[in-house]
Amino acid sequence: MEQLFAFIAQSRNFILFVLLEVLCFYFIINTNNYWSASFFNTSNRYAAQMLAWSNTAHEYTNLRQVNSDLAAENLRLRTQLTARQQERSLLSPPLYKADSIFATRFEFTVGKVINNTTTLANNYLTIDKGTADGVKPGMGVISPTGVVGRVRFCNEHFSVITSILHSEFRVSARLVRSNEIGTARWMGSDPTRMDLLDISRYKPVSKGDSVVTSDQNSVFPPGILIGRVRSIGVQANQTFHDLTIDLSTNFGNLSYVYIVQNNLAAEQSQLEKQVENEK
């Protein structure tokens, strides 16, 4: 306290000067219309700028919650869209309509990516969902923009996903315009591109054509985007197109994914194994 009084005593002239300046400024603002208007316009401008900065900082701190809410909303919309697509497939006869069990066979669970590799020959992802959330090995994984991979290992709270950027990953794919079915495979170099195999060179293929998951797999719902045709080539003495596609999923900034559960996968697999055993 003594130090405070000593400081005030030493600085009394400066403190008095500041108080008189403030008093003069107050009288000028309140007795002169021009300076009064100028002061309030300037103060309002700076106050608005400070408020904008405050709102920007507040929005930035809430981005995690906003992203989580968007992922949940996308989950709801994805479930509805898949059910509609299963109910009336684009390749089905006009009068065909699937029963309600088949149309709703796919369910989705939101997961957050907590680890991701893109530079290896065999890449993996780790998500924060495991067996406690109903996740099992073999389930497909997609993003809001396309195919991501397949669950390989999981414990109670985490799962490791075999990325589509994996030398052994294959997915049955379909060209939207021509309805031709082939196999999408990553060749291990560019994490933004894949090759599309087994498309006959005698079938028409267009650059920019969408490549989606086909009906011939039980892991992914049909119609999930994989990418778009980037280049078309034909090697000598080959019967298939040499196709390269640009992946629709950007693995460099992947944040949220959806784990796909096919409720009829076990039933389908059991029946198919029974047929194979009889051969």
UniProtKB/TrEMBL annotation:
Involved in formation and maintenance of cell shape. The lineage of its organism: Bacteria, Pseudomonadati, Bacteroidota, Cytophagia, Cytophagales. Gene3D superfamilies: Rod shape-determining protein MreC, domain 1 (2.40.10.340), Rod shape-determining protein MreC, domain 2 (2.40.10.350). The keyword Transmembrane applies. The chain crosses the membrane at residues 12-29. The keyword Transmembrane applies. It holds the Pfam family MreC. Belongs to the MreC family. It comes from Fibrivirga algicola. Keywords: Cell shape, Membrane, Transmembrane, Transmembrane helix. InterPro entries: Cell/Rod_1 (IPR042177), Cell/Rod_MreC_2 (IPR042175), MreC (IPR007221), MreC_beta-barrel_core (IPR055342). Residues 113-261 form the Rod shape-determining protein MreC beta-barrel core domain. This is Cell shape-determining protein MreC.
